[in-house]
Amino acid sequence: MHQLKIKVEVFKEDDLYVALCPSLNVSSFGESIDEAKKALVEAVEIFIEECSEMGTLDEVLEESGFTKKDQDWLPRQAVSEEHVALAI
Predict the structure, then answer these.
(1) What is d(CA 1, CA 3) in angstroms, rounded to the nearest whole number?
(2) Dihedral sign of CA atoms 72, 73, 77, 83 in order
């Protein structure tokens, strides 16, 4: 079985939780964090299935920063991550 490892971010917006996979720009939502994450996994699975059926999966994953190791796809790894404040 192959694996695709994704980063999941969850935000609260009003009464809902929004789960986002930033590298694929796929999101979903739910009334709880767990519901939002479950809905996101389903959305990513559908996205991957559609890309696979169109024959573009490898290209889409590579353009999104994933690298293939053996049969698994690994996300891009940041060497540094921080929040920076800008004056606007």
Answers:
(1) 7
(2) negative
With vertex at residue 22, the alpha carbon angle to CA 18 and CA 23, rounded to the nearest 5 degrees, is 150
Range of the domain at 19: 9-74
Number of domains in the chain: 1
Task: Give pTM, 2 decimals.
Answer: 0.86
Contact 8, 17 (CB under 8 A): no
Please name the residue ranges forming H helices in 2-72: 33-54, 57-63
Task: Dig out the tokens for 10 from the structure.
Answer: 């969850």
Averaged pLDDT, 2-31: 96
Q: Check: CB of residue 74 under 8 Å from CB of residue 6.
A: no
Q: How far apart are CA 28 and CA 35, in angstroms?
A: 9
